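Risk register update: the risk of archive-format incompatibility is retired. Evidence:
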Amino acid sequence: MNKAETGTTTVGIIAKDGVILATESKATMGNLISDKHMKKIIQIDEHIAITTAGTVGDIQRIGRFLISEARMYRIERRRKIPVSALATLLSNVLNSNRIYPYLGQFILAGYDTQPRLYELDPVGGMIEKKYSATGSGSPIAYGILEDGYKEDISVEDGIKLAIRAIKAASERDAYSGGNINLAVITKKGYQELNAEEYM
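Archived output:
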């Protein structure tokens, strides 16, 4: 059976007043570039989003599930779901399917009382972090993040660092490339930005 390889680079960074998510946009199947403009940041609610790395069908299903759960929480409880609660829910879903896992890595991030960021693996491992990178380009992105991250980094400096990490990975990882997609979540909510304005 032939293995269909996929690759990606996604980055998440906690800043002083928000959380930054950045991805590249190339989707691959082995040596084939199947899409040059794949969106790998999924907005879940006005205060939460995830980045996705892995098999497209699996990660899209997870995205739809999380959007539905966040909406149901709002209807039933009349308030936004806490970021940690949604991360725990995703962790439990991934872990309960560990025999036939969803083939994806996720960075789930948001802002409730403060910025939060969780990295989740395909079998439900969940770690709260200050910064994270997933996908085939993550070793390269981590080198940039390790060198440039500081406690209490500003949102603007965090954006520039995330872009540097994605650019470095795109230049060295064959499965990463294309455009840079960028989003910021602050206490004002989720906002997609034009990465070119910060380059």
